[in-house]
Every structure is written in C-alpha cells, then in structure tokens.
C-alpha cells in the first residue's frame, strides 16, 4: 500500500472493490413491517467495543431496466413520487414483490407493465445500493434490447401513480445532459445513463 504523495490516504490499484464485513449485532428490534419492507432498530458493536444504534430500512430488493431501441434511444417514464413531492423521470423499475420470481423476470414484468414493451435480449448493466447509510435495498439494473410492443389486449391497466405515467424515448446524449444539469435526479436512472455513456464510448 502506497501513501498519496501529498494528501491523506493511499493510492488505489485496479483491484480495489467493496468487501464483505459484518459487525456484531447485540439486538435487533422490528419497528414496522409491511409487504414491501421492514424497519429495524439494530445495535451494532464497532471494533473498539462501542455500541451504536442504527435504524435500518429493509426492502425486498428491486430491479430497473435501461431499454434501448434500435436507434440507440433510451426509455424513461415519469411519475409522481410522494416522498419527494415531485414527478421524476426514471427507468421502468419495481420491487421484488412476487415470491420466488427471478430478478430478470421481475425486470421483464416491470418493463411490460410500465411501458408496454418487451425485450428479447437482457444483460446485467449495474448492481448498486441506493442509500446504504440506512437501507439494505440492493438494485439490479438490466440493459434490455431487441424491443417489441406488448399487444394491446395484453397490456396492464395501470393504477394509482402509474395510471398517470408517461413514456419518453430520449437520445442518450440528451439523457446525459439531463443528468448533469439536474433534470434527471433519480439515482438509479442517473447511474444507468452514465454507465451507458461509458459503455458506448468504449465500443
């Protein structure tokens, strides 16, 4: 390990990565539970022996889809998000709320339900934690191509916030600009758009 020549910290090499670790938990008290998530109050023990309370939101996990059409445009949907009081531009996405469903199948279901689109080709684009300071929620973002429309008679009747959802196909450069100037602020969407830009720059 080599120290930075003039600043605190060490110089990283190409192998640097997240790593598994679990501090001891002396107690875990469930404060809330629903079909989508649990909230626990955990007491963890740091290496120096100190005990620290931590509220942890425990969702069931989630998936999102970067759908790319034959012209290289990407799909975003807009919908009202009550917790932040805004309409957000986002990738089609949803929670793993069907017991036993594989994540890629959940992603395909969400793409069909929210955008009336199917894809023949799927690959994992990103895996990420959205807010690891207080939530265990893990996201898998898929890149979907070879797209076709869902037939009219097989389309989902959307409800609640999704009933007012719109679908937009954006050139990637426009999506990148929207991320960088704050018009797209959803974390998973911003990360996926920028990852797609890197992917294409390396092609």
TrEMBL record:
Q: Which residues form the Nudix hydrolase domain?
A: 57-192
The UniProt GO MF terms for this protein read: hydrolase activity
| PANTHER family referenced in this protein's UniProt entry, alphabetically | ADP-RIBOSE PYROPHOSPHATASE, UDP/ADP-SUGAR PYROPHOSPHATASE
Q: Please provide one cellular component term from the Gene Ontology annotations of this protein.
A: cytosol
Q: Name one Pfam family in it.
A: NUDIX
Gene3D superfamilies found in the cross-reference section? Nucleoside Triphosphate Pyrophosphohydrolase
Record keyword Hydrolase present: yes
Query: What is one GO biological process annotated to this record?
Result: nucleoside phosphate metabolic process
What keywords were assigned to this record?
Hydrolase
The identity of this protein, by name, is NUDIX hydrolase
């Amino acid at each position: 390990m080599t120290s930075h020549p003039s600043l605190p910290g060490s110089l990283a090499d190409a192998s640097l990565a997240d790593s598994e670790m679990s501090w001891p938990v002396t107690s875990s008290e469930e404060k809330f539970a629903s079909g989508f998530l649990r909230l626990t109050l955990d007491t963890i023990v740091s290496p120096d022996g100190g005990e620290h309370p931590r509220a942890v939101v425990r969702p069931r996990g989630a998936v999102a889809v970067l759908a790319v059409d034959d012209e290289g445009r990407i799909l975003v949907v807009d919908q009202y998000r009550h917790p932040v009081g805004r309409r957000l531009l986002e990738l089609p996405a949803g929670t793993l709320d069907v017991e036993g469903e594989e994540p890629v199948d959940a992603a395909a279901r969400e793409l069909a339900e929210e955008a009336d689109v199917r894809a023949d080709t799927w690959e994992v684009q990103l895996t990420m934690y959205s807010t690891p300071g207080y939530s265990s929620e893990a996201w898998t973002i898929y890149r979907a191509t070879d797209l076709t429309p869902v037939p009219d008679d097989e389309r989902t009747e959307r409800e609640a916030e999704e009933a007012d959802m719109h679908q937009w196909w954006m050139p990637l450069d426009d999506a990148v600009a929207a991320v960088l100037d704050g018009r797209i602020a959803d974390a998973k969407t911003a990360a996926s758009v920028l990852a797609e830009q890197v992917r294409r720059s390396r092609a």
